[in-house]
Design goal:
The chain is globular. By secondary structure, it is of the alpha/beta class. Helix 7 packs across helix 10. The protein has a six-stranded parallel β-sheet, with helices on both faces. It is 47% helix and 13% strand.
Length: 226
């Protein structure tokens, strides 16, 4: 069986934490750590040089923080109909201390995990993000996304793009906002999982969203989550 290797860049200003992350992720047969960065500037430079699939990003770093580095690496949402390009970013956060993690969502981060999460969660998180899905730590999902959306909802009206979604696509978007996987959405709507995958793709394309994380944000911003 062919194993597809996920190339990972680790960005954290604490050497001991980087070393621990390298040892942990390297223990997985399908993950290769291709580089380490001690600050955001190094992360941006190495992301361009090494072309990793996933960047595991700390928030608080010198020179350039993880927020600015994420925005530089990801470059925001793709143009409508375009496939996302470049690395995906998985943010490691302490949450209560990292208030500007809200802005990392807007910068295009694909996932968030708490630094005290079990080791297996981090390995799984890298795999999930590399596959193009979103990953939000269950303990922070609703609080994080909900507060982020409340902060930004007043900044712009509901976009006309929502009107392009079919009723079924709206159903799928609402269930994505609840944190359901494709399999769980399929069970909820009594449809095949492949059909749900197709609907998810249509939702992302029509709304010009990079991934499921941005779909969750979009749903909260526009009153489609509850």
């Amino acid at each position: 069986m062919l194993i597809v290797t996920i190339r990972v860049l680790i960005a954290d200003d604490q050497v001991m934490i980087r070393d621990g992350l390298v040892a942990l992720l390297s223990s997985a047969p399908d993950i290769e750590v291709v580089g380490q960065a001690g600050n955001g500037l190094e992360a941006v430079a190495l992301a361009g040089e090494l072309d990793p699939d996933v960047v595991v990003m700390d928030i608080r770093m010198p020179e350039m923080d993880g927020l600015a580095a994420t925005a530089r690496i990801v470059g925001g949402a793709p143009e409508e109909g375009a496939a996302p390009a470049g690395p995906r970013v998985l943010v490691l956060t302490t949450f209560d201390l990292d208030e500007y993690v809200y802005e990392a969502l807007g910068a295009g981060a694909s996932g968030f995990l708490l630094k005290d999460a079990p080791a297996a969660d981090l390995i799984n998180g890298v795999r999930v993000v590399a596959a193009g899905d979103a990953l939000l730590a269950p303990s922070i999902t609703r609080r994080l996304i909900g507060d982020f959306a409340r902060r930004r909802r007043h900044q712009r009206p509901s976009p006309a793009a929502t009107a392009t979604l079919t009723p079924r696509e709206l159903d799928v978007l609402r269930l994505i906002a609840r944190g359901l996987s494709n399999a769980e959405i399929a069970a909820e709507l009594v449809l095949a999982e492949q059909t749900i995958k197709t609907h998810v793709g249509h939702v992302l394309t029509k709304l010009a969203l990079r991934d499921r994380t941005q779909a969750v944000v979009y749903a909260y911003e526009n009153g489609l989550a509850g």
